[in-house]
Amino acid sequence: MTDARKLHSDKVSEAEAIDRAKQGDASAFEVLYHLHKRRVYSLCLRMTANTAAAEDLTQEAFLQLFRKIGTFRGESAFSTWLHRMAVNVVLMQLRKKGLAVVPLDETMETEEESAKKEPGGEDLRLAGSIDRLQLGRAVEELPPGYRMIFLLHDVEGYEHNEIAGMVGCSIGNSKSQLHKARMRLRELLKTSRAEKAAKP
Prior knowledge:
By secondary structure, the protein is mainly alpha-helical. It has two domains: about 5-95, Rna Polymerase Sigma Factor, Chain: A (Orthogonal Bundle); about 110-200, Winged helix-like DNA-binding domain superfamily/Winged helix DNA-binding domain (Arc Repressor Mutant, subunit A, Orthogonal Bundle), CATH 1.10.10.10. The protein contains ten helices and no strands. Mean pLDDT is about 75; it is low at about 100-130.
């Protein structure tokens, strides 16, 4: 039995594992990895929509954790702290690859202008009756910048000022990108429903 399995079978609390990992205990770090790897991978996959990239970024996030666990002070939940670290790892990777996380040169539209484009159009709510699988596919089809802001705000729950700091854009731009992402999702879902209805 490995030390990590022994720690796991001894029902070591997360707090204990964190303390031991801070002191360089590799088996305690392994316990933390097994506790959080699925959540971190799921986050990376949602943000990149690419399984290979998500696997690489998950490894990178845990490497960062290994290097920085000594800085964890317990001021927030460990899962929250790790989550933020993983988001930062993904954002840094996207910046390195030169992907436009947020196209800043686009003109900003107000919600009134966008709403005028769809007079009498069906307003598809993202909650409720929409099939989750259909929504997931639509989110994957969003341009990377829109998808990133949508996931950070509507899925992960970050505020616009936090997103602006993480992504490196203005708060207004974050709001604009979120609005455009939602409008684009509505279009994608409407098209998907129309195609489904047209099938015999």
